[in-house]
Each structure stands twice: as C-alpha cells, then as structure tokens.
Request: fold
Amino acid sequence: MKAERIALFEGAVSLALIAGALLFQYVGHYPPCEMCHWQRWPHIASAVIGLGGGLLLAGGVLPGRLAPALAVLAVLAVAISGALGIFHAGVEWHFWPGPTACTTGFHYTGGPIDLNAPVPHCDIAAWRLFGISMAGYNAVTSLGAAALGTLMLVRRT
Reply:
C-alpha cells in the first residue's frame, strides 16, 4: 500500500477517535480529565499530519518522497496516544499512581469557579463498556491502528 494512503488511514482513525471523544464530552456530558486531554493531542497531530499531509500528497502539493515520513509520523502519534491510554487505564484500575493534579480532588486553575460543575478525576473511569473505559478503548484502537499502519509500511518496502 502507498505510504500516502497509510498516512490518510492513520489520520482518519485519529479524527474518528477525536470525534468520538467530543461526542462523549458534549452530547454524553462526560467531561474529560487531564489525562484524557493528554490522549487527544497526539490524535490531533496525527489527524493534521495524516489527513492534511496525505491530502497534500494526493494533490501533488507535497513531493511524493515525503509520504513515508508523514506516514511514520502519523503512526507514531497514534501509538503515543495508545501508550497514554494504557497509562490512563492503569491509573483507573489503580495499577499505578497517576498525576496528583487529577487524582487528589479539586484543582483550581484560575478564572471563574462553577461550584456545581463536576470535577473529573483521572483515577475514576467516567464510563465503561464490558469493563473497559474510554482510555482502554483508546489504547486498544490506537495501538491496533498503529500496528496495522506499521505492518503496512513494512510490507510496502
């Protein structure tokens, strides 16, 4: 498979996962904790690199020799989010401690305070399906997509 398509695939997976996270946040009313935000940044990077770069490659704006590098960067960003998902799921299962900023209670960051707003904790899963939290599903999906992208990159050479 062409590296350009691998970059597009990884970017599309990341965009889908970000869209799902935003649906949970704004439609399901599950506010993200600090570690949830950590997992979003690599997906945003992968979406920009994978989809943006892939479309620029497909349109001939970028030279084709950049395709493998863009694909590798997109795969790496997805894998980083998956690794953060494993760490976050481990914090939720209390396998290891998480950052004190989001596991010890209220953390004031300045600005107006809504005392009725829920304070998301990194060590409490807000939602689970079949015992797996959103962080766990992000880990499985992201690492699976990264493994598939890596396999496709290796097979193409």
